[in-house]
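Quick one: structure for this chain?
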Amino acid sequence: MTQPFELPSFYMPYEASLNPHLEQARVHSREWARDMGMLEGSGIWELSDLDAHDYALLCSYTHPDCDGPALSLITDWYVWVFFFDDHFLETFKRSQDRVGGKAYLDRLPRFMPLDLSTPVPEPTNPVEAGLADLWARTVPAMSREWRERFAVSTEHLLNESIWELSNINEGRVANPVEYIEMRRKVGGAPWSAGLIEYATAEVPAEVARSRPLRVLMETFSDGVHLRNDLFSYQREVEDEGELSNGVLVLETFFGCTTQQAADMVNDILTSRLHQFEHTALTETPALCVQEGLDPARCAAVAAYVKGLQDWQSGGHEWHLRSSRYMNQGALDEKDSPLGGPTGLGTSAARVADLLTAAGAERFRAHTHVPHQRVGPSILPDFQLPYPTTLNQHLPAARENLVDWCHAMGIVHEGVWDEAALRRYDLALCSAGLDPSGTQADIDLSAAWLAWGTYGDDWYPVVHGRTRDLTGAQALTDRLKALMPVDGPLLPEPAAERDVPADAVAAARETLRAASAGGAPEAVAATAGPGAGVVPRTGLERALVDLWARTAGPMDHDSRVMFRDSVEVMLDSWMWELMNQAQHRIPDPVDYIEMRRATFGSDLTLSLSRIAHGKKVPPEIYESGPMRSLENAAIDYGMLINDVFSYQKEIEYEGEVHNLILVVQNFFGCDYPTALTIVHDLMNGRLRQFQHVAEHELPILYDDFDLDDEVREILAGHVKELENWLAGILTWHYGCQRYSSQYLSHGVGTLRPPGAGAPSGEPRGIVPANPGLPFAWKAAAQAMAL
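Got it. Here's what it folds into:
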């Protein structure tokens, strides 16, 4: 059969090696698969199929250092997961039996009890029998925390198959952003990462859920899945009619040829490997130091990182050889750019590839010249269909917010003054987000927006220009310590307090020291939770006040969830400072995911969920459709901000965290082209939001058999997100935070020395883009997030 495209040249910096216990694993996996009923008589595989797929070879490549028994067990897991994939295809996907597939999947978690003394059902098919056997053989050697994580990743791998089946039923190909998010779960790389821990070392619980470890797993996941999509396109798309394949997604989305789409997928794959390397070499060692890990636990993290690398290189070698995939000619000598050896591990020896396009992209990420003149921000024709209704309490909320910021000291420290606060008009945003809220609701919402915006300005002004990561981390630790989850939280009313003169002086000294290049000692001390931290700055005092007013009425679990959401935003500000210190523009995937955090999205969503009470099952919020709905709305809202703030951030602040700049830098295109790409992405996210609300949520509600009350609550949640989007756009048009004529007036704004005020010419308008010519191939890849 003719291949639909020529395989691209792959970036693979890690050399593969082969486990010496390969043959032992082959023999064992044959016997085990037959014992579980997966071979003759299963209607799915014969022994010849298992031998041709050679999962023992896959595991010997991807786990080269473990002993024989461990390799055999891991091989059994991979035999099981591939059998499940084929069994689900033949039993439910081909017949498009969604109801039967849902019932089949609902039973499988019962075979993964965290406590092995819990009885499991009698298996009724080879998938259930295999899972029961594997779980009992694996989990005794691992901690309960690992069991919980691995069970969740296994359930995601299984349950999201229903998402694929739903798309087949609709005849629908996902959009690129949705695809990357869902592929991580469906493709099973997080599940593979759990088995890497089994084969190497269990990740310490203190860092298992941290951002660097999450990014390592996600970039590993993207690399594994995108590589698999290239090799499996012919089997999945042409033979099985599968719609969940990255090449097909881009081919459909851009209307390009299969070869062009394959080249794009490979470019994104290369970018994700670069992100993996950056995180492994910079953020992960810093995390170990920050968390105070002892040498043994640091070694465990290092062994896990090496295990992820081994999987990447080993998985690539296996794809080159397995009969399951399209790999004709992939091992021919002509494919080696050096004309040299083509045996085991030589896919990592493509020196020419490493020094051309891949190296150029990596270098470009650190060569941006800050404070370039870009002129007024250009605004596209936003196609948001939701009207804005402003809350009747807006006039009073504006004045109440000014009074509160004075009481907290926010406008006395040199970063903002009252004139700037009034120009920003954050109460306008609150009034659009919550059109029916009470005066107290709007006042509290506006105060949170002011605190988050002030913090987003404080960190780069005070800590960014001096690369003071130590002081910034100390401040972050102090802020986290000011959010207790136990005991009563009853501050004095803000209006009855005066800001101590020495606190204002200390805050001003902090800003003065930063401007002069010194260390801002006013926030240099550290304190842990429960250490009785005394707030020193407006940022700290405001958080104490907001925390008490917001978390005070909550129960313990809600406080924990809400505090976690605030901490996500605090940590994202540190991530931005680290990139600024390294003068590094992030890649598009990393940027999109972290921008959700810097925009305060988790904080907003957690407040919404807490307000819904405990009537909505938590698994609804964690489901694929709900996360897809919320992320689509978040992405549109945060990209509104990127479009409006482009001149402010790029020209005046020397920022690197703006998707328009990320697209320009990553793909070498100009501002108008990058803006059009970002605008097209926004429209895609809006269509995704509408699609999920109209088509996927009703199915989700039926799957969980939700009653009318819960369905009404969730319908209200969709309306809240619509109000959120409309309110954000209205605020950006109505405030003066981003207007050219005011940018030079911002107190504490980072401006190039001697730069004059920008011209007062009006912003331009980019018409809505009717199509995306493929001639913009390089820039268009930004859409393949």
